[in-house]
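Sync notes, pocket subgroup
Present: LS, DG
LS reminded everyone that the earlier model was apo-only. Rerun requested with 2-acetamido-2-deoxy-beta-D-glucopyranose included. Inputs:
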Amino acid sequence: MSPSFLVFFFSNSIFVLSLFSSTIHAHRCTQDFLFETHSRNLTLCKRYKHRNGVEFGWKVENTTTNILKVLVGARLDSKTGWLAWGLNLGPEPRMVGTQALIGIKQTNGSFLGNTYNVTQYIKIGCNLLPTPIDLNVTNLIFGRLGHIQYHTIEATIYLPQTVNISRINHVWQVGKVAIGMEPKIHEKTIRNYDSTETIDLQTGTSISIRSARRHQARVAHGIFSIIGWGTILPIGVIIARYFKKGPIHWNEHDQWKHAHKTCQACGYILGATGWVIGIWLGNYSKYYSFPKHGAYGICIFTFATLQTLALRLKPHTNDELRTYWSMYHLSLGYALLIVICVNIFKGIKILQEEETWKPTYIAIISSIVFIFFVFEITNWIKHKVDQLTTSKQIS
Ligand code: HEM
Ligand SMILES: *[C@@H]1O[C@H](CO)[C@@H](O)[C@H](O)[C@H]1NC(C)=O
Ligand SMILES: *[C@@H]1O[C@H](CO)[C@@H](O)[C@H](O)[C@H]1NC(C)=O
Ligand SMILES: *[C@@H]1O[C@H](CO)[C@@H](O)[C@H](O)[C@H]1NC(C)=O
């Protein structure tokens, strides 16, 4: 392996590590919200930074009678909107089955609320209307913290004795559309899907480690895919195309071939690692899915595997099949690069990292395309010059 490759990998791994450490959840509430929780004698507070930005302050008043006091707050920036928080006393932290408190921002600006039972019929499109719920709720207040532009839900809940406060499922959500007292469906993004947690109310720790790791797993999935499929594979293609016959000559001892193989092997290993993480993420999210992104991902993995296997199944140099094999290997390779590019953009959109990741990836792609063009034009000019000189010699 040449030194430039080592430098390349070294810098990439540092990039991966730094992104890993920077995305570990910071659960500290904002100063203003913390102040509000303290003034209500609530002792614990959590901010779901990567999940809607909802803040949740609470206190278990009395561990034997299970009295829970909560303050939930979030910004509702659109003209109408709603903020929901609730408990799901079923086995899983999920939307269906949540006994919810929902506050709705009306068109005239007032914030009105009620209790709602989110059943499976809501998920398939039935109207969500106020009903009494299976929780004993008192002191229910739907309020506004004008200075930080938060809408809040405040309540005291007498939990049933059967509930284990060290393992309770809570669910929250924000939506933009509401008509009267009827909240309409929320957006369908990762942040909306992630807005559940199994929590130990006595300490505030998340019980479901797997779900807490989900965000990091997604970031890792994205970085591995972008570096493996999206950067190293196309560089390998450039090496195979332009380092063999020119403009750069790297063919004395077949160096181009070794470099190409090394690139494609490294790209494949990184990409496949990302893909495995992606499959894990897909299996984990039982209640939602991103079918198109997943289907493209499976195609990419399958065809990249075929391309890698091609190294072993290549016909001998003099074989007539060799031409067909080359055509197949090339066309599949280029098609693969396009699908990879499309799917990376899809992934960035799903991850809602358009402001930071998109420009980075566009920079990578445009550098690669730029190099392609420069080499292609150099080759073309060289070809023309050669033609001219040979025709002059003939005349
Ligand atoms: C207003 C009516 C609502 C409708 C029509 C609705 C519809 C949906 C649908 C269709 C999904 C799944 C998307 C997919 O599979 O791709 C979903 C997921 C989800 N919704 Fe809602 N929703 C509504 C209200 C709520 C409320 C009030 C909450 C919170 C209390 C909530 C919390 C969630 C959560 C946490 C998920 C993630 C998956 C899960 O936990 O089941 N939704 N919603
Ligand atoms: C908070 O606790 C203090 C001291 O125990 C008490 O005087 C005060 O009334 C409490 N405030 C609220 C909002 O419960
Ligand atoms: C706003 O409209 C709701 C009904 O949608 C009404 O109950 C409430 O009193 C109104 N608030 C103001 C400030 O006009
Ligand atoms: C409550 O949940 C915690 C955490 O999972 C567990 O350690 C504890 O045994 C449970 N307590 C009861 C009474 O089920």
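DG: Residues 3-20+212-394 form a domain with the Four Helix Bundle (Hemerythrin (Met), subunit A) fold (CATH 1.20.120.1770).
LS: The pocket of 2-acetamido-2-deoxy-beta-D-glucopyranose (ligand 2) is lined by residues 40-41 (CB under 6 Å).
Action: DG to write up.
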